[in-house]
């Protein structure tokens, strides 16, 4: 079988790739994502890759070509953040599902598995197990649940139009694995949350409101369900979770490492909900209050149908999956993709560093070289802030994949240059980098930038500034290449960095072409989807 996995770089997607790699029935796998992973790393090396942004209507043609000749499609693409951009989330999650299904039908794909969720179910106020016949109207107050319910309606319409296609919709509980620790931290606790302290100390008591309970499933177990669904050509809905119920007491005991009876502090639900809402709106907490509503009102799932039809059963309990996730959060575990990137990613083997503190020869003016490298690092710091801000500001446009790809590359190079400077025995620059970062922020306070309302002209000018920065960086790599031996680095490393700069200029050139052809016209939109 030839399988295409849409959204193959995230928590579930990486586990599905791993599962597919061990199945004799599978002859080839194509992974699709907005942003490519490190394709040489596990488990991403087991697939061929292509980029596509499923939110736009014209993605149907692209998807249909990519699906051509495939026996099955597993659709996992889903955007959880940013909560403030509801239109973007709906386009990616709901419209994107419609585009994937339509393309699969056009490509004559006969087996499809789609990631739905326990969040699609209608709210309940009890712990009675529900099977797949329970309603899927969603839970009021949760944007995630509302979009999952809307996705179910898309699948209802598709099944009515295409009864010849086997469509399986999987409704898993919370999906945990150690490698998703950093991703889940970013989505719910935030990048600045000190979760690394979990490795040294656990909170003796955990605040928990009454009525909180959920079911979890390990990523490996949910991956087996997706693969079985497409191999068997399964139809209909399947609840996928460990049947163990993670109550507030159980969750508190796992977090604290204490017995269930002595780990929880009861806090009233509504004041906590208000506090989470305020923290989210103040941009202190990425999670909004809708997740509390889901944890209180999502039904307990009966998984009998998956056990009977898919011959599926979880190998990891919900408690063990949660404990593994907490360990992953504490250690900053991850994988080689943008969603799963580890918290502290060392320099890649592609750009090796000297193996020990390197001494420059006396023929080199160490002071001048130090100053030169420090100035480039300061410029890289400012450039990194700028490109990350651009990717965030224009994440709903057709050029977001290029902006994001450049941002990821620049961040990796920034870290490598910093480590190279330290390997020479130079201290970290403590003044220039912060100063240039502040100057870069002040430079954005201009009329064209419209901090609260985007301008098409801003995309043009910001891209031009980044093109200039990348060109300057490219020249810096060439200078350092002339001193590669003295720095203890192979010259080929700098050659690859120069090539990477050329790739970044090409990507930014595509952004500039897109923006300049639209920015000053009244008959062509820059930010309207599909135009």
Written description of the protein model:
The structure is a single chain. The protein has 531 residues and is of the alpha/beta class. The protein is built from 17 helices and 13 strands. It has helices spanning 11-21, 59-67, 86-106, 143-161, 181-189, 219-232, 248-256, 269-281, 290-297, 304-309, 318-331, 366-393, 400-423, 432-443, 456-481, 484-487, 491-516, and strands at 2-6, 28-33, 48-51, 72-75, 111-115, 166-172, 174-176, 206-208, 213-214, 216-218, 236-240, 246-247, 264-266. The protein has a seven-stranded parallel β-sheet, with helices on both faces. Strands 7-10 form a two-stranded parallel ribbon. It has a two-stranded parallel sheet with strand order 8-13. Strand 1, helix 1 and strand 2 (28-33) form a beta-alpha-beta unit. Helix 2 packs across helix 3 (86-106) and helix 7 (248-256) crosses helix 11. The chain is globular. The chain starts with a strand and ends in a 15-residue tail after the last helix.
């Amino acid at each position: 079988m030839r399988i295409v996995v849409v959204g193959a770089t995230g928590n579930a997607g990486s586990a599905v790739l791993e599962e597919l790699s061990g199945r004799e029935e599978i002859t080839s796998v194509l992974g699709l994502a907005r942003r490519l992973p490190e394709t040489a790393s596990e488990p991403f090396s087991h697939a061929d890759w292509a980029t596509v942004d499923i939110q736009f209507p014209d993605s149907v043609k692209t998807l249909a070509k990519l699906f051509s000749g495939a026996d099955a499609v597993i659709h996992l693409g889903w955007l959880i953040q940013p909560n403030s951009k509801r239109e973007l989330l709906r386009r990616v999650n709901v419209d994107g599902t419609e585009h994937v299904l339509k393309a699969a039908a056009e490509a004559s794909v006969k087996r499809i598995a789609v990631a739905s969720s326990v969040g699609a179910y209608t709210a309940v106020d009890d712990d009675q197990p529900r099977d797949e016949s329970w309603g899927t109207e969603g839970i009021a107050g949760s944007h995630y649940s509302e979009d999952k319910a809307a996705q179910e309606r898309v699948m209802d319409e598709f099944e009515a139009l295409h009864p010849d296609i086997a469509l399986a919709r999987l409704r898993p509980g919370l999906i945990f694995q150690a490698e998703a620790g950093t991703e889940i931290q970013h989505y719910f606790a935030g990048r600045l949350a000190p979760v690394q302290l979990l490795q040294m100390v656990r909170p003796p008591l955990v605040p928990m409101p009454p009525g909180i309970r959920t079911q979890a499933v390990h990523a490996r177990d949910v991956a087996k369900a997706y693969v079985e669904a497409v191999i068997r050509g399964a139809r209909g809905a399947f609840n996928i979770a460990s049947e163990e119920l993670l109550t507030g007491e159980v969750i508190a005991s796992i977090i604290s490492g204490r017995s269930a009876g002595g780990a929880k502090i009861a806090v009233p639900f509504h004041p906590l909900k208000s506090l989470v809402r305020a923290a989210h709106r103040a941009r202190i907490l990425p999670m909004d209050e809708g997740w509390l509503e889901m944890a209180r009102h999502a039904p307990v799932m009966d998984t009998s149908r998956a056990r009977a039809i898919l011959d599926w059963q979880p190998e990891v309990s919900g408690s063990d999956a949660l404990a593994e996730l907490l360990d992953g959060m504490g250690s900053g575990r991850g994988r080689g993709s943008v969603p799963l990137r580890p918290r502290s990613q060392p320099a890649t083997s592609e750009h090796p560093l000297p193996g020990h503190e390197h001494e420059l020869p006396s023929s080199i003016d160490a002071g001048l070289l130090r100053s030169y490298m420090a100035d480039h690092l300061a410029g890289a710091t400012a450039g990194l802030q700028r490109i990350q801000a651009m990717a965030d500001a224009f994440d709903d446009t057709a050029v977001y994949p290029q902006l994001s790809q450049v941002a990821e590359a620049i961040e990796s190079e920034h870290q490598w240059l910093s480590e190279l400077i330290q390997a020479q025995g130079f201290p970290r620059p403590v003044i220039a980098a912060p100063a240039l970062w502040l100057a870069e922020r002040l430079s954005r306070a201009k009329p064209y930038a419209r901090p609260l309302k985007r301008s098409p002209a801003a995309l043009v000018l910001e891209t031009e500034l980044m093109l200039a920065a990348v060109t300057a960086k490219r020249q810096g790599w060439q200078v350092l290449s002339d001193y590669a031996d003295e720095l203890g680095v192979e010259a080929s490393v700098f050659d690859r960095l120069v090539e990477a700069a050329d790739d970044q200029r090409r990507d930014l050139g595509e952004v500039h072409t897109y923006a300049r052809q639209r920015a000053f016209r009244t008959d062509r939109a820059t930010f309207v989807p599909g135009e």
